[in-house]
Recover the amino acids of this structure.
């Protein structure tokens, strides 16, 4: 079905060896798979059910990558890309639904209709994306940490591995970033 | 905010967090050193930190699942198995029906999708499959033929015969029927119903 496994594996290896063009080719392949899986998961899960984003990325990884050939490092690289792509997928979806709305305000959930909840969450995702873009301009690593944890579902330790910093550093940055983002998202 | 200010802010924020509330006040007093905006910035962040309803604390898919709760959305042009969706024909109690092109046989079909919330329910799924099987066993000019049932990306569908033209409901909305035509239609419906198994 997917011609991808060998190609993704090869591209991952090339990218980890420093070839930037490999990343460009990698992205659409991973994007397609994640997009497909994401919609599959989203349709299957009832609202309110907890869904492991990292499980989804794991599944994408297993489908796309020829495992025995890949070193651990490449796996963490993959998670890094995957989180970024998950962000793109979800934010695209949210912006489409949010196109009538303006601004980046965090909306309090006080309604309980399905359509209203859907609208609220779309607005929240858009607000977060806007806030992350601001964060990125002043602290790229904090922005990346939030991306990996929120969109990629990675733990503190996994995030530390991807970024090659200590878990303590990740924890500190995460603590600050989440407070800062909440503030951003509640300002008019 | 210039780099150094931000570094200060981070440093004071973390140091304050490590202290218990009574000591915090004294610490902020000395660390901020009459710089009101800095003091305000730290206090604001500390307050924000304490709020429990932080959006980023729950993984993205929670929001995503809730975001998509009101629909199972396909769009014209989407490919489902070997079908290409052309347009939305309508929406019934059991799901949406699309006009689609069967790309293998090059013919138009109706594709009816079972809504995700229903598919998650075992009983509904059983009934959906059972009805599809019952309908598939019938062959009558007044009953849309069932071609196949399938699953694509987690969505269950029935592929059925597409009959061009208005539905009876649409026709009746447009104009009243004369008695002759009304009887003709009724006879056709009855004929179709007569081969369906009793409920």
């Amino acid at each position: 079905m997917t011609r991808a496994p060998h190609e993704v594996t090869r591209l991952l290896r090339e990218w980890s060896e420093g070839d930037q063009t490999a990343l460009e080719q990698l992205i659409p392949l991973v994007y397609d798979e994640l997009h497909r899986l994401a919609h599959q998961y989203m349709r299957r899960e009832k609202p309110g059910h907890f869904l492991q984003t990292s499980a989804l990325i794991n599944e994408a990884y297993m489908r796309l990558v020829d495992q025995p050939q890949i070193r651990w490092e490449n796996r963490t690289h993959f998670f890094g890309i995957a989180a970024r792509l998950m962000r793109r997928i979800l934010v695209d979806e949210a912006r489409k639904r949010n196109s009538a709305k303006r601004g980046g305000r965090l909306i309090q959930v006080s309604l309980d209709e399905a359509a209203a909840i859907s609208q609220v969450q779309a607005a929240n995702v858009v607000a977060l994306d806007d806030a992350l873009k601001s964060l990125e301009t002043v602290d790229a690593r904090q922005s990346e940490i939030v991306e990996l944890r929120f969109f990629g579902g990675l733990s503190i330790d996994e995030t530390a591995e991807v970024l090659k910093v200590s878990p303590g550093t990740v924890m500190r940055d995460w603590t600050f970033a989440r407070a800062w983002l909440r503030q951003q998202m509640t300002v008019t | 905010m210039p780099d150094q200010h931000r570094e200060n802010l981070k440093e004071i924020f973390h140091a304050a967090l490590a202290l218990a509330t009574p000591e915090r006040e004294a610490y902020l007093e000395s660390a901020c050193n009459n710089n009101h905006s800095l003091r305000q910035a730290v206090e604001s962040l500390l307050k924000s930190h304490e709020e429990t309803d932080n959006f980023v604390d729950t993984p993205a898919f929670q929001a995503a699942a809730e975001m998509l709760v009101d629909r199972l959305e396909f769009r014209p042009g989407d490919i489902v198995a070997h079908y290409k969706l052309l347009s939305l024909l309508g929406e019934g109690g059991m799901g949406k029906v699309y006009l689609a092109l069967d790309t293998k046989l090059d013919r138009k079909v109706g594709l009816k999708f079972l809504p995700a919330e229903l598919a998650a329910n075992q009983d509904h799924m059983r009934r959906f499959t059972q009805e599809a099987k019952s309908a598939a066993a019938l062959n009558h000019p007044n009953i849309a033929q069932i071609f196949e049932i399938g699953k694509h990306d987690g969505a269950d569908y029935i592929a059925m015969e597409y009959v061009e033209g208005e539905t009876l409901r649409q026709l009746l909305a447009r104009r009243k029927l004369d008695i002759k035509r009304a009887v003709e239609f009724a006879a056709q419906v009855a004929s179709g119903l007569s081969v369906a198994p009793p409920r």
About this structure: Chain B touches chain A at residues 1, 6, 10, 13-14, 17, 44-46, 48-49, 51, 54-57, 59-72, 116-117, 119-120, 153-155 (CB under 8 Å). The mean pLDDT of chain B is 80. Residues 79-164 of chain B form a domain with the Phosphorylase Kinase; domain 1 fold (CATH 3.30.200.20). The two ends of chain B are 72 Å apart (CA to CA).
